[in-house]
Amino acid sequence: MDPDVTVPDDVDDATWFDELFAAHAVAVHRYLVRRLPAGGADAEDLAADVLATAWRRRADVPRGAELPWLYRTAGFVLANHRRKARPTPVAVVPEVPDDVDPAGLAVDDDQVRAVLARLTPRDRRILLLVAWEGLGGAELAQVLGVSRGGADAALSRARARLRSAWDAHDAQVDAG
């Protein structure tokens, strides 16, 4: 285990976890809500799983980069949840948009949803981590498990494919 990622001696585990929870629990919950169907009914349970994992693996959580580590863990927890869940039809969307959260409005926008559906899951994930979660290059690299250069390249390619998907969507709408 790398000594640079262990809890400092002057901070006990409970204090560290309390600070982690206070600083990042809401962000983890929102991350999951945005990615779950039907209003994210399971988001609280999944967020608890992510935070429980952080507690169990607290020596592995890098100091100063807790949120990217939590997002990456949330991605794994969400993938496991999806493997266990029943499929939900894409047509099922909330009737009333969340007009408080701009990200929620974007999900309810048919055009955005249609264009995002044209992208690969990896491209969608990269774009949403940057747009919704506000991750920068270094944090994105940590979440993806790649170098900073790899994350920058992946983001650039995802943005280019998003532009192409918008163009194809617009052409399809114009054609009729």
Molecular structure report:
With 176 residues, the protein is an all-alpha fold. It folds into two domains: 1-92, RNA polymerase sigma factor, region 2, helix turn helix motif (Rna Polymerase Sigma Factor, Chain: A, Orthogonal Bundle); 96-176, Orthogonal Bundle (Arc Repressor Mutant, subunit A). It has eight helices and no strands. The model is unreliable at 1-8 (pLDDT under 50). InterPro entries: RNA_pol_sigma-70-like, RNA_pol_sigma-70_dom, RNA_pol_sigma70_r2, RNA_pol_sigma70_r4_t2, RNA_pol_sigma_r2, RNA_pol_sigma_r3/r4-like, WH-like_DNA-bd_sf.
Note the main attributes of this structure:
176 residues, mainly alpha, Rna Polymerase Sigma Factor, Chain: A, Arc Repressor Mutant, subunit A, 2 domains, globular, disordered N terminus, DNA-binding, RNA_pol_sigma_r3/r4-like
Compile the SSE list and pairings.
Layout: H1 13-35, H2 43-56, H3 66-84, H4 102-108, H5 110-117, H6 121-131, H7 137-144, H8 148-175
Helix pairs in contact: 1-2, 1-3, 2-3, 3-7, 5-8, 6-8, 7-8
